[in-house]
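Issue 218. Parser rejects a valid record. Input:
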Amino acid sequence: MSFRKADWPRKLRSQEWYGGTSRDNIYHRGWLKNQGYPHDLFDGRPVIGIMNTWSEMTPCNGHLRELAEKVKAGIWEAGGFPLEVPAFSASENTFRPSAMMFRNLAALAVEEQMRGQPIDGAVLLVGCDKTTPSLMMGAASTDIPSIVVTGGPMLNGWFRGERVGSGTALWQMSEAIKAGTMTQEEFLDAEQAMNRSSGTCNTMGTASTMASMAEALGMALSGNAAIPAVDARRRVMAQMSGRRIVQMVKDDLKPSDILTKEAFENAIRCNGAIGGSTNAVIHLLALAGRVGVDLTLDDWDRLGRDVPTIVNLMPSGKYLMEEFFYAGGLPVVLKRLGEAGMLHREALTVSGQGIWDEVGEAVNWNEDVILPVEKALTQSGGIAVLKGNLAPDGAVLKPSAASPHLMKHRGRAVVFETIDDYKARIEDDALDIDETCVMVLKNCGPKGYPGMAEVGNMGLPPKVLKKGITDMIRISDARMSGTAYGTVILHTAPEAAAGGPLAVVRDGDMIEVDVAARRIHLDIPDAELEARLAAWTPAVERPASGYAQMFFDNVEGADTGADFGFLKGCRGSGVARDSH
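Output the parser choked on:
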């Protein structure tokens, strides 16, 4: 940990707008006074932008307006000047074709909001899956002092005396209907039970994973990730974060000071320990690209391979985020990693302290929720990165959510050219498929869908489900919801729409998967593969206009984070705009 605090007091960037008596100063300051702010608030104190992803169309973030008031209280108390700013809110459960298509747009938007306005520091008020990475990416590019405050998970779902996890139960019950073991009426009864309070998914889905990643990276105060949305302690966390950002501005503690290679390595290991979402791979790769940290898929595989999954939460385990918080939350997990020599203890956090200083005294209050290492869900958690002639640039699999008997398998490919092709054929009893086959879905990557939707965990055909089979190997260039489960191989790169080998897989081809050997292989001669690729023509058309066209033209592969190439390594460049 090597951070030297800046001198205080000093002139902050907001004074370029608000300080002085020039026409421009009076223009900027005078207009803001129409909201009733007294003149002495413009005296050079830190101006803090609360970048709020609240939206009534983002259900996970529907309570963030209330939380923003607590953040403001903390900022006022610490002598700052809080100003709430609406940030682009990409909701996973409402945006089509996929919220992922708009992660980069949201990151670009918040970057320009922070760069173009008189903001000395920012509170990133986030929750739903893409809002957390997008705001961190934008903040990383501006390199203005920033702190993450997440909205927290919803309360446990309960249905007929059993826990039901948001998302996870949805996948389970929809499969049960196709298998004939659950009625539609029962499914509707369970609907309200799944989502019974404000907050994000209560499983270790992508929202909870990214909240954990923010904490493990050091971008949020210790303990932030797991506090339930409706718990009073969530409001306390918001207020304390408001206080803290003011001091961060005074110290000039920036994202680039925190987001080091060591911080990313801590987060990767943490992801393995919590059984985190595969979506964390793509988001952390993109975030690392923004700050110029050399992070690759190989780092994910290397660092996660020997990390035991000790958090017993759905979809890998049986509990939910509420129990995780009561057990001690992420600080306990980070302490375990530190004790095992798997944590860079000196990595700096937004508190101004090293991460070990924050978690060294954490206590595990429930060893059935945060397991001892010898009782881990899997001794080799993390994310497995597979490579071979079918995925030259890599594909990912989450071992803690997969079936052990499928981790080494050879099967006949059943190919779906698009998601619409899959939907049209999957329930047809005439489909030539059984449980030994490998389901292959094409054209669902960053360019293909477009946006790389969460369709990789394809539901199994009813004819297989009715035999009592609940898992098959599925391969695609798509993503999978963090709430989902199964032996699902994702992010296959290069994607089909870009002419990757996935594009030329045919029905009946044999595919070999060996997770232990990190191998994925299309069993055809090299010459045959080369001939198919030479004859390939794109099946996905370039969008005609608008952001969709910009996305298609500039998005990079999943193996590097699916960010826009022109935004990499641009932290802090040209932070202040020209005067009015």
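Fixed in the parser; the record now loads. The mean pLDDT is 94.
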